[in-house]
C-alpha cells in the first residue's frame, strides 16, 4: 500500500471522527493544534486507524502529532 493510499484512508477516518473537511487535511495537519482535538478524540481516531489497517499503534513510544507522522508510522508497520 502506498503512502498516498494510507493518507487517503486516514483522512477519511479523521473526517468521519471530526467536523474537519477532508480537503483541509494534509500531512502537516496537527491533530491538537489544527483540528482542536482532545486526547479522547485522538484516542478514537487511533482506534479506527488500528482497525482499518489491522495494526497496533504504540502511542506511548511514538510522537504522532501530525497526519504525516501517522502515515509514516502506519507505512512502517505495514512493511514489517
TrEMBL record:
Pfam families: PP-binding
Pathway membership: Lipid metabolism; fatty acid biosynthesis
Signal sequence bounds: none
Post-translational modification summary for this protein: 4'-phosphopantetheine is transferred from CoA to a specific serine of apo-ACP by AcpS. This modification is essential for activity because fatty acids are bound in thioester linkage to the sulfhydryl of the prosthetic group.
Residue ranges of every copy of the Carrier domain listed in the record: 1-78
A Gene Ontology BP annotation from the UniProt entry: lipid A biosynthetic process
Compartment(s) of residence: Cytoplasm
Entries under InterPro entries matching the protein: ACP, ACP-like_sf, PP-bd_ACP
One Gene Ontology term, aspect cellular component: cytosol
Highest taxon above the source species: Bacteria
Keyword Lipid biosynthesis: yes
Keyword set, alphabetical order: Cytoplasm, Fatty acid biosynthesis, Fatty acid metabolism, Lipid biosynthesis, Lipid metabolism, Phosphopantetheine, Phosphoprotein
Family matches, as HAMAP family: Acyl_carrier
Function (record text): Carrier of the growing fatty acid chain in fatty acid biosynthesis.
Family: Belongs to the acyl carrier protein (ACP) family.
Protein name, per record: Acyl carrier protein
The gene coding this protein: acpP
